[in-house]
Specification:
Distance between the termini: 68 Å
Number of domains: 2
Radius of gyration: 25 Å
Helix content: 55-70%
Number of helices: 21
Length: 489
């Protein structure tokens, strides 16, 4: 099978396989899936063209995979499959800018960019993982369209843009970069009929979600408004600085691998003097999304989350090799690959150790014990099973997905605005509220049951549970709970 493949490509295939395997297996240390993934499974089970935070694609995939294979590992595999797919498209793109060895290494050194590794074990499969696949695919077909303008490429560009938008709205920032580059270097594309064919294809794919947004008053906007809202003047300064520093920390490992091996290979550092439209392609498409989000942080002063920028750094390796030319020797090629494996191992050991020794409910939540205790307490008072659960998502979503018998999660939105929930049925069956801090109980209770009698005393009770890390060491946690009692309607 590999006989007709060059030695470089063989090394690349082995690298991708090693990356896929090691970062998929990291999930075996956890007892429960990451909260983002559990949330996605629940959203996917609603069979809706939208959810309270994002377009539906990640949720659909999460639910379909989990419901089909009934295994946590299946979602870790899917997460890395998307990431490896993104790396492959990045490699295909790199070949337009670099020599074969450089193109391969520009992807291999991305092992120093920890978004490609830790995200599977920490976040699992979520909309950001979808973008790690779709954004390189969109960029690849956009470059082909700008270079060759073939019908197939335009169709694939429209398809990939539509799919990417169904994964996460942040795709718009990449499109902004694409528009700026085309407006400067290839304005004739706006007179090309195939350009509009591509736009129509993307629009058709996104249309069902757009209709859902209109019908539901653009529900996800409230999530982003809450993130961007601030009441402190210094947020307009600190948030942009924090965002930029986190982006630098993300790509520092990539720059280290590149610089170290360039130095070992005795290649002098000199910057490409003349930046042509290909160089501007790399810079504009990479930096525009990041600059746009820095501007958002400056204007809003709110929490522009660092991971919103992490997904745009897939061309980092290409940029380094393109602007800091390096004639790689055979030894330099080998050393760079080896260094990337060493970095992979270091990150794996660091992150694996953290997951092994940590005693956190986010990864070691004893769902069966907690759910059984609350079922017994509830039935003693109300002589019926618990149907609805709400409160802190770290406590409620594991119960919703793993618990038996099954429960319905009210999600962190007011129940009267929850299009998937019947308020009368919630009042009829009551709700179990789970929170971390005692003073949160009233807010969550009013979200879950706004028609609760005014004279109802909302007094949270403490519940303690013990979790054990992978080494057998235990830690006791406490949460607070409140039973919204069933009502006769």
């Amino acid at each position: 099978m590999l006989k007709n493949i060059s030695e470089e490509k063989k090394i690349f295939i082995i690298f991708l396989f090693a990356h896929f395997l090691i970062w998929s297996l990291i999930g075996t240390i956890r007892l429960v899936l990451p909260t983002d993934t559990l949330e996605g499974i629940w959203w996917g089970s609603l069979f809706s063209f939208g959810n309270p935070k994002h377009p539906p694609l990640a949720g659909w995939i999460s639910y379909f995979v989990y419901n089909t294979f009934k295994s946590d590992m299946s979602l870790y595999f899917v997460s890395q499959a998307f990431i490896v797919g993104g790396l492959i498209y990045t490699y295909k793109l790199a070949k337009f800018f670099l020599e074969p060895k450089q193109a391969m290494l520009s992807v291999v050194i991305l092992e120093g960019c920890w978004i490609y590794s830790y995200i599977t074990g920490y976040y699992g499969f979520n909309p950001d993982v979808v973008l790690l696949f779709t954004l390189p695919m969109v960029t690849y077909y956009f470059y082909r369209c700008m270079s060759y303008s073939k019908c197939y490429d335009w169709i694939m560009l429209g398809t990939s843009v539509g799919i990417s938008f169904m994964g996460k709205y942040q795709t718009v920032f990449l499109l902004l970069g694409m528009f700026i580059w085309a407006a400067i270097f290839n304005r004739k594309v706006f007179r090309n009929k195939l350009f509009y064919v591509s736009v129509i294809i993307a629009f058709i794919i996104f249309l069902p979600h757009l209709i859902w947004l209109i019908e539901n008053n653009f529900m996800p906007l409230s999530y982003y408004e809450a993130k961007l809202e601030t009441f402190e003047w210094f947020g307009h300064i600190l948030e942009p600085i924090s965002f930029i520093l986190m982006q630098i920390s993300l790509i520092a490992g990539v720059a280290f691998i590149f610089a170290l091996n360039k130095f070992i290979d005795k290649s002098k550092f000199h910057l490409t003097k003349n930046i042509d439209k290909r160089g501007w392609f790399l810079l504009i498409l990479t930096l525009t999304p990041l600059i746009a989000q820095v501007i958002m942080a400056v204007i809003s002063g709110g929490n522009v989350r660092p991971q919103w920028g992490f997904v745009y750094w897939y061309m980092t390796g290409i940029i380094l090799f393109y602007f800091l030319p390096w004639q790689i020797s055979d030894k330099g090629f080998s050393n760079t690959v080896k260094t990337s494996y060493i970095v992979m191992l270091i990150i794996f050991l660091a992150f694996g150790t953290m997951l092994t020794i940590e005693k956190s409910y986010r990864s070691r939540y004893p769902v069966a014990t907690v759910w059984n205790d609350f079922q017994q307490m509830w039935q003693k008072e109300f002589h019926s099973p618990i149907k609805y659960v709400s409160g802190l998502i770290d406590f409620s979503y594991p119960i919703t997905i793993y618990g038996n018998p099954k429960s319905i999660n009210l999600m962190d939105i007011p129940v009267e605005k929850n299009i998937w929930i019947d308020l009368k049925d919630v009042e009829k069956h009551g709700v179990l509220i789970l929170i971390k801090h005692e003073d949160e109980i009233e807010g969550f209770t009013k979200k879950a049951c706004p028609n609760l009698a005014p004279n109802t005393k909302i007094i949270p009770k403490e519940y303690k549970f013990t979790l054990t890390n992978a080494l057998g060491q235990s830690r006791e946690y406490h949460m607070y709970y409140f039973f919204i009692p069933p009502r006769k309607i």
